Amino acid sequence: MSAAAGEPAWGWLPEGDLLTRGERIEWVGPSAEAEAAWQARRGTEEAEVIELQCRLVTPGLIDAHTHLVYGGDRAREFEMRLQGASYEEIARAGGGIRSTVAATRAASDETLFSAALARARALLAEGVTTMEIKSGYGLSLEHEARCLRAARRLATALPITVRTTSLAAHALPPEFEGRADDYIEAVCAWLPQWHAEGLVDAVDGFCERIAFTPAQVERVFSAARALGLPVKLHAEQLSDSGGAALAARLGALSADHLEYLGDDGVAAMAASGTVAMLLPGAYYFLRETKLPPIAALRKAGVPIAIATDHNPGTSPTLSLLLMLNMACTLFRLTPEEALAGVTRHAAQALGLGASHGQLRAGWRADFAVWAAEHPNELAYRFGHNPCTAVVAGGQTVPPSHLHRTA
Ligand code: DI6
Ligand code: FE
Fold it and tell me: What angle do CA 67, 68, 74 make, to 5 degrees?
């Protein structure tokens, strides 16, 4: 078995073994030392050997930015964009996010859940054992709660770690037309209620000229911080609004998208340890041409993560492996940086850096097994899924969970 811990120079053990105990990794090291490590720990417990057939093993992948719960789709909007309409024009004309809000509100709880379940299964089939799931298509007290409950329920139906994020500050719902500040005030009042129900692990916003201003985002962030919730932000996706610097100043876990990020934003993120979450699927699907400032982020030592941004409008992909490839081909990340971006840096972006995303003793026993010789192959091939087995929390994931149904 080979192990790629995702550490500098791949952290790759060409011949390694893992011991797990309960949900955690107990020991990881060279195969030659595995027998001794096992004997030293041997108690009365029964041991189960998971035969990994000399295959590559990586930490379970982490998709740290998704909008997995929504109704309907936006295939018609895709056609309109191909005929020349821009994403912003469609959004300003009441389409875009608002059309998904209407479809989400009209969907039953069961429909919302089963569609999200199929999407989560497709991610899991590629070795994704941890996913962040945002609300943001309900935009009312009850509809946001329904989406967050559906996200929470996924972790009871599948052996995955789910982190939920409230993205109520995603777009202005029609009933608040022309009253953005009133909507923000409402969101600040709703947050404690979602939090009290245990529905929220973090708070996000869309800081953009077609969404909310930095001042409005700051009000939502103050409400989050009053509840002790970490924040993150969709920032600098379509223009430079100074969102990343604002997020960094408030200690954000991540600032996401970042195509239009300037030097000040990079410096602020470096100072606060905020992760740069790059989303090549949205860049590709919107045919953006402005690249995020990768060289400046690298130079400043800002940790870089990669995610699908799965959503019906700008990134309807369910392949995190494809995002690895795009991060390399479109953003010129190295395959090693891309893998770190969906393992340990992604864990950091979720506040799970000390428990997820690495093959290390004490970390959660989440790992993926690949029909590959070297970890660089995960970014190299595209449109191809070499994942042969997934172990989550020390348990082999049954093949029935790994069927692609979305
Ligand atoms: N940025 C995005 O790319 C998605 N949300 C956001 O804030 C787009 C969501 C959509 O178009 O439905
Ligand atoms: Fe997003």
Answer: 80
Atom of ligand 1 nearest to the CA of 206: 7
Ligand 2 centre from 309 Cα, in Å? 5
Ligand 1 centroid – CA 313 distance (Å): 6
DSSP summary character for residue 130: E
Give the distance (Å) from ligand 1 centre to CA of residue 87: 10
Bridge partners, 28 (sequence order): 18
- Please give the Cα distance from 35 to 39 (Å, whole number): 6
Q: Judge if the beta carbon of residue 312 lies within 6 A of ligand 1.
A: yes
In Å, the largest CA–CA distance within the chain is 69
In b/e form, how buried is each residue of 230-249, taking b as 16+ CB within 10 angstroms? bbbbbbbbbebbbbbbbbbe
Per-residue pLDDT tens digits of the chain, which is 406 residues long: 344 444 446 778 888 899 999 999 999 999 999 889 888 887 656 677 777 777 899 999 999 999 999 999 999 999 999 999 999 899 888 889 999 999 999 999 999 999 999 999 999 999 999 999 999 999 999 999 999 999 999 999 999 999 999 999 999 999 999 999 999 999 999 999 999 999 999 999 999 988 999 999 999 999 999 999 999 999 999 999 999 999 999 999 999 999 999 999 999 999 999 999 999 999 999 999 999 999 999 999 999 999 999 999 999 999 999 999 999 999 999 999 999 999 999 999 999 999 999 999 999 999 999 999 999 999 999 999 999 999 999 999 998 888 655 5
CA separation for the pair 205, 225 (Å, rounded): 14
Nearest CA to ligand 1 atom 11: 313
Atom of ligand 1 nearest to the CA of 170: 7
Closest CA to 319 of 263, 381, 374, 273: 381
